[in-house]
Design goal:
The structure is a homodimer. With about 425 residues, the first copy, chain A, is of the alpha/beta class. Chain A has a domain at about 85-110 and about 215-390: Rossmann fold (3-Layer(aba) Sandwich), CATH 3.40.50. Chain A contains 16 helices and 15 strands. The first copy, chain A, has helices at about 40-45, 50-55, 90-95, 115-125, 140-150, 165-175, 185-200, 210-215, 220-225, 245-260, 280-285, 310-320, 330-340, 350-360, 385-390, 400-410; strands at about 5-10, 15, 25, 30-40, 85, 100-105, 130-135, 155-160, 180, 205, 235-240, 265-275, 320-325, 370-375, 395. The longest helix of chain A has 15 residues, at about 185-200.
Chain lengths: ~425, ~425
């Protein structure tokens, strides 16, 4: 907190004291999302890549000077961040690229990148003296909040839309959250969470309006930069739902450039599902967002009324980026391709970015010789139904070697 | 490999050259499980805790001198091991203990401790010049083999019993494995895998008879020892199915003691499900194993004909340990307790050890003031059906604040 200047409204520029429960600009309301502003000069004086490299903490708290928390505040004990990065040659070949790197953020404690934001939320709730944290979510934000709240002895209240996959809901319940399955769309779930948070004064972990959560999400890209020894690839690819994750990427790049930890910024590719792509449309047309239907199996990014679209589009524009859409069929295909080529099992929203890369290469947006890094944002185990659609069914055999021989011949195993 | 003396038969003591596809004693057959013997004097000369602490590799390959692979052999790129360890005070209180530590091995790349063994299997298959690796498994060994094989460009062939949960099967398919759902018990799946491996000369990753896999599993305890700064708790607790994991724990403790990295060995508590506890019975009665039915929802440890029971019982005996059984009801209860108290979501077989701890404390086997470490061996996302049984159902509400008020009162949220 010693490095924070203030919270600045992205609409009117007015600044505010960084209270832990200050969410929106007092003048602009819902249009006035706030952004955490740091004193980069002070940070530079105390902190640099060499100091980071000597920090034995593998979690995302190693970037503490760039996180908007009091250094003495209690933190949830789960090890958030420090996820692995793999280069994959054969996957690159399939996508038409010479060099692709995969960061598996599905190995966060509750299985998604959202742990990065939720761990921040729990710290800020504690700083605000609150014992209940709440959010609406299609799943990952919720389970990460429930897990991090449980680890910290707080109570989570979670609003999920009716279509949230069973695995994600079960995980919430196991973490002891009070779970409200709102019989309606994601927007209905969001609205009931907002009015409940208002009515009972709970801590608000709705990422779009809570300025601190983008700061947690940005650690995925801070980490990526460190893993690439502060020389990021030409492109960083992320899927886009509410807009908050790619906004976090944009914020990380701004931080890293201001601190001169990186010499050049990568370009950002944002990927949405064709069945729900309001941010791509607003970006392409240069117009305000229009709310749309939510028709995609990639539930984590099927957000018809994304609250953070402005920060998302700004992140893409500020980083010479692009937006593309991909179909559900392409997403399912990529679940299998990623698994077969790398041993990483990503959820649909997590692998949609791969389909986006293929499309961007075909359309000439990404050059074949450009280096690409992609963050797989969630674990495939969270959405088994989609995995089944993508993967098909096993051979069902009586315990008999003759039947097995048929499989061996059919699969060509005798020729390997 | 420069540190390996030989493979020794645990039945007759005869020794063999450590060929990568040497599985059993040539004289004793299935009774003659082999054990990797190291030259501890040589290892001590080259390696110690200080050197380990300076190794930047967080994966289990940091323990290379104690792993039976050629240092130059290609390794699967997935980051296996390096899983987090958490102290949890409130969970300890619930179980009647002052100090309990949880190691979340569900955060391995494919979601279970079995990645530690499968990564070894893939290396050994490569050393043997084989391109197909095969095993029978209730799920975790299989998905870890499929994932590590995919990451290495090898083909996995997996035999699963009919009752394997859908999530685990889908994960296998995503990783591109050829999956055979054997319409029978785990023993039927095992037998068909054994005859197929024999018939087509595939690499055998059946942990019970492949001596190298126990060596991979032992890294969970090597890591635990390092995380405790080489001063392990009074008890280390593991669930027991095929017997291979606790055998690995025993091997790790032997290694650590021979190398004098630890001063005293912890005691081992092995936990089986009441509905399938042949090793507990053999241990209690001091008699050879009797094959039994497989009646437990903890599918990963429901093994009626465990092939590695002798090594398991030896590990418990050599470490002044004990075995206890727990019911499915206790296991489901522990899924929720662990989640609510720690934010860790373990699969049934993973959390059964917690129920075992409670039982052991009540029976006076573990003293209330003794320090306990438990390894949660698999991720709860792998078995959502059990999680649902354990967790119940969410509130289903129309988007209406009045209905929400009823929930707030019922849950006592207004009083927090």
């Amino acid at each position: 907190m010693q490095y924070i200047k203030d919270l600045a409204c992205i609409n009117c520029g007015k600044t505010f004291f960084p209270d832990p429960d200050k969410y929106l600009c007092s003048d602009c309301g819902e249009k006035g999302l706030l952004e955490v502003e740091y004193n980069y000069g002070l940070i530079s004086r105390d902190w640099n890549p060499r100091i980071i490299s000597e920090n034995p903490d593998p979690s995302h708290w190693r970037y503490l000077p760039l996180l908007p928390v009091n250094p003495d505040s209690p933190r949830p004990p789960l090890r958030v961040g420090g996820t692995p990065l793999y280069r994959n040659v054969s996957l690159g070949e399939e996508l038409g690229l010479e060099e692709i790197w995969i960061k598996d953020d599905g190995l966060n404690p509750t299985g998604s990148l959202k742990d990065r934001a939720s761990s921040l939320a729990v710290v800020k709730a504690g700083e605000a003296g609150m014992k209940i944290v709440a959010c609406s979510s299609t799943g990952n934000a919720a389970s990460s909040l429930a897990g991090n709240a449980a680890a910290s002895g707080m109570q989570a209240v979670i609003f999920v839309p009716r279509r949230a996959p069973g695995g994600k809901v079960a995980q919430l319940m196991i973490f002891g959250a009070v779970v409200i399955s709102v019989q309606g769309s994601y927007s209905d779930a969001y609205d009931l969470s907002a009015s409940s948070i208002d009515r009972w004064a709970w801590y608000n972990r709705n990422a779009a309006i809570n300025p601190y959560l983008v700061e947690g999400k940005k650690t995925a890209v801070l980490e990526l930069a460190e893993q690439f020894n502060w020389d990021l690839p030409d492109w960083v690819v992320l899927t886009v739902g509410d807009g908050c994750t790619i906004a976090g990427a944009g914020k990380a790049l701004r931080d890293l450039q201001e601190l001169e930890f990186i010499k050049k910024k990568p370009r950002l590719l944002g990927v949405q599902a064709s069945g729900c792509s309001p941010i791509t449309r607003a970006w392409k047309e240069g117009k305000p967002l229009e709310v749309c239907e939510e028709n995609s199996l990639a539930d984590s990014i099927a957000v018809g009324n994304p609250r953070n679209w402005q920060k998302a589009i700004r992140a893409v524009r500020d980083n010479s980026g692009a937006m593309v859409n991909v179909s559900d069929e392409e997403i399912l295909e990529m679940m299998g391709l990623l698994g077969r080529k790398s041993g990483v099992f990503g959820e649909p929203a997590g692998v949609a970015g791969l389909a986006g890369i293929r499309r961007a290469v075909r359309e000439g947006i990404i050059g074949k010789k450009e280096k690409v890094g992609i963050i797989i944002t969630g674990n495939g185990l969270k959405d088994i139904d989609s995995a089944r659609k993508a993967a098909g069914e096993p051979y069902r055999l009586a315990p008999d070697l003759g039947r097995m021989e048929e499989v061996v011949l059919k699969e060509g195993l005798d020729e390997l």
